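Let us practice reading a record.
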Amino acid sequence: MQKSRIESWLYPTDRGLYCEPGQFHIDPHLPVDRAVITHGHGDHARSGHGAVLATHETIEIMKVRYGADCAGSFAAANGGQTINGVAVRLVPAGHILGSAQIVLDWQGTRAVVSGDYKRSPDPTCAPFELVPCDLFVTEATFGLPVFRHEPAEREAHRLVASLAANPERTHLLGAYNLGKCQRMIALVRQAGYHRPVYLHGGLRALCDLYVRLGVDLGDLRNVTDSEPAELKGALVLCPPGALSDRWSRRLADPLTCYASGWMRVKGRASQHGVELPLVVSDHCDWPELLRTIEETGAEEIWVTHGREDALVHQIGLMGRRGRALALVGFEDEGD
C-alpha cells in the first residue's frame, strides 16, 4: 500500500508509534527518551522513559503503580504545547480517569491518537471529546459486529437488585484494578447502594488515589480488616484473577460476579464460574467504533490492538483508507 503524507512524519517503530518532527513516541512499550502517554494502564504506560508528558491523573497513576521515580521527569499537559514545532494537545478519551487522546498538528495535517476510549457515560472520568482530524488512530478491542455493550447503569442496577434478593450471600465482584473497579463502585452508588464496599488488598491503592483525585467512592473497607459476619450479604471487589483464590473462602456463600465487556461471550462467563455476568466495558462496542470513525471525518484510519482485520475491512466499506498497525506490546488489559 502506498504511504500517505502523514506516514512521512508519524509511523510505527519497534518501540511504538513515533512522531519524527516532535522526536517523541506515543505509548512506547520500551524505554525512550521522550514519551507521550495516553493513560495509566500497563499496556500503554510503562516505566523507564526519560521524560513523560501526560495528564496530571495519569502521572499520579504511574507513580502509584511504578514508583515516584519511574521516569526521569514528568510534565502534566496543561492545555496545548508545542514540541519541536508539533502542536500537541491532550483531550479526554473517556476510558478511565486521566485518559486522553493525543492530538497532533503538523504542517496543516491533524492526527488524533485515541489510545483506548469509550463513548458511554462514566462517573469516574471526563467524557470522550470528539476531535475532527485527517488521521484517526483507533483501538479495536471489541471490533466485531457481535459486540453490543449493555448500558452500564442497567448492569449496576442488576447487581444492586441481586444484593437485595440474596441477603445471605456475599457478592464477590471481579473487576480490573484500574478504572473498572472504581467505575463499578461509583455506578452502584448511583444505583442507590450506600453500604460499605469491601476491597481485596490489590485494589486499595488505586481506589485511594481516585479518592485523592476527587472521585467519591463512599465507604470503602478492607476485607482483611473485617470479620466474616460483616461480609455476609456484602459487596466485595477483587481482581479477576482472585475470584477463585483461597482468600475468598472466608466469604459467606459467595455469589461470583464479573464486570467486563467480555461477559457478552457466554463461554467466558462459564470459564470463570460466574453466576452474575455484568457486561460493562471501558471500551467502545462495534456501533460506537463505527460512529466515532464517521464523526471524526478522518479519511485515513489506523487500527491498533484488537480485531484489526474486521474493522479495517469495514473501514474500506465506509470509503476510507484503513490500516492495521499491529503495534507490539498492547494487550487487552482493562477488559
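A brief commentary: The chain has a mean pLDDT of 94.
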